[in-house]
Amino acid sequence: MKIYRCEVCGFEYDESQGWPDEGIAPGTKWEDIPEDWCCPDCGAAKADFVMVEVSPA
Amino acid sequence: MTAASGVDAASTIAVVGTGVAGTTAALTLRNAGFTGRVVLIGDEPDEPYRRPPLSKDVLRGTMSPGRTRLRAPDTWSQHSIELRTDTRVSGVDAEARRIIFADGTGLDFDRILLATGGLPKVLPQARGVGGVYTLRTLADVSALHGVLAAGSRLLVIGAGLIGSEVAATARDMDCAVTVLEAQPAPLSRVLPREITRVYEELHRASGVDLHTGVDVRELIHEGDQLAATDAGGRVHSADAAVVAVGLDPRTELAEHAGIATGDGIIVDEHFATSAPGVYAAGDVANHPNHVLGGRQRVEHWLNAQEQGAAAARAMLGDRTPYSCVPWSWSDQHGVTMHVCGWPEAAEDLTVRGEPGARDFTAIARRHGRVVGAVGMNRPAELRALRKVVSAAPHAEQAVLADPATELASLASLEVAGTSS
Ligand SMILES: Cc1cc2nc3c(=O)[nH]c(=O)nc-3n(C[C@H](O)[C@H](O)[C@H](O)COP(=O)(O)OP(=O)(O)OC[C@H]3O[C@@H](n4cnc5c(N)ncnc54)[C@H](O)[C@@H]3O)c2cc1C
Ligand SMILES: [Zn+2]
After folding, report:
1. Size of interface A-B (CB pairs under 8 A)
2. Which pLDDT score is estimated for B420?
């Protein structure tokens, strides 16, 4: 399970948690999220996210 | 970079402010091919970080402060950006093109960007009173988190975006929360009246004791207790208070340099100030509003970022006028709101969906033109509307209300020029 961070605002998408608010079930892989999905905070497109390593910090 | 830019590999560009406007500008200078010296200076001790989570996850304790870091620590050195944190600029000599630091040393520059942001407005009644907090920096948040984690009864003065978010986070942490707002409704500076009602309900349903139209006359701290007395003589007591009554743009460097200021530092559509070679961007910049006409100062994350990038390109000679539309979001009581454009300027509002169910998009028109939108649970519609607002087309309310209308298509309806 990976975490992806929005380059624009810093919102993080955690695959293990999904995004149930928008019907994205826990465990949903990044690749499986629709291309037209956008950042729940700033509204940036999926393409504006970058992958980050999960860090316990 | 064009020959007209007047900067080259031997030039120095200084950026004051390590917020998102300043850092984005520094990185954009490099991405746009500037090979001269870039010095990025900020008075905060921390490496550049993101402010939006400070009133949300960081305050709640569900995101560590380290997680707010804006870029990997080696980003700056990789881009040959000289990052100087904990460094206060005490003066700018615009004519001699020289920065003076607090320790008396100086730095000569060819161009300078003032991205100095702002500080929480001080409520005169709260000056020097114990138990009163404000929230702008990482340093502020750790103190306030301690207060909330102790389950304190919290008084929030000001129900703008930050006050409302602090209230919501404090409720998440099971604090008893009283909000005192001078305006008749929360968020009334950013939202039309119909939508502020959604927030009144949301706050109350989440257990916030919300009082609007309240004029706080006196704030007294005595024996670990705070007491706020309003104009009607009513006393609201708590263990601590957060004052969130707006932002004062940090214009002092510009003012002392003889640069034009008003509400912020006055810039043109290329972020140039009244002094040659001096630019300003972000929360501090007062810039032309290309849709409504007039001027504005925007206090949002994405705009500070876009302005920093645009100002950097302008410093290198790019003559494209800035035309980004305000965009912001807010997370309160588990609900995310998106705002684009100028919904507060609405003459009429077209609502798609159900505000009561917190699933809606409200589209604001002024003189029949689409000038803003607010939404909950509909980020894609808001994203489409941001482009629409940039074009500000005339559109019938019936068309806007029709669920079958593809909102994005409205952007190409008609491109209106700047008018009022
Ligand atoms: C708690 C909080 C929550 C927010 N949430 C949201 C949100 O959800 N969505 C949204 O869109 N926006 C949000 N915002 C607003 C957003 O964070 C700001 O618009 C943005 O950070 C502004 O960036 P800036 O670079 O213009 O200014 P700043 O981030 O204020 O940066 C200016 C920097 O310049 C430094 N500085 C000033 N003067 C000097 C000097 N003389 N010498 C050296 N350094 C100096 C300051 O210390 C500061 O570090 C929030 C803001 C706060 C405080
Ligand atoms: Zn984002």
Report:
1. 40
2. 38
pLDDT of residue B416: 44
Query: How many angstroms does the Cα of residue A5 sit away from the middle of ligand 2?
Result: 8
Task: Classify domain B3-119+247-315 by CATH architecture.
Answer: 3-Layer(bba) Sandwich (3.50)
* pLDDT tens-place string over residues B181-209: 999 999 999 999 999 999 999 999 999 99
CATH dotted code for A1-26+47-56: 2.20.28.10
Angle at alpha carbon of residue B33, lines to B29 and B36, rounded to 5°:
70
Which tens digit of pLDDT belongs to each residue from B342-383? 999 999 999 999 999 999 999 999 999 999 999 998 888 998
Q: Mind giving me the DSSP string for B11-25?
A: -EEEEE--SHHHHHH
Helical segments of B20-85, H only: 20-31, 57-60, 75-78
Instruction: Provide the whole-model pTM.
Output: 0.94
d(CA B43, CA B215): 34
Residue type, B192: P
Q: Tell me which chain A residues have a C-beta less than 8 angstroms from the C-beta of B68.
A: 10
Q: Is the ipTM, as predicted for this complex, more than 0.95?
A: no
B334-419, CATH topology level: Enolase-like; domain 1 (3.30.390)
A42–B50 CB contact, under 8 Å: no
- Give the atom of ligand 1 at the shortest distance from the alpha carbon of B54: 1
Residue whose CA is at the smallest distance from ligand 1 atom 34: B17
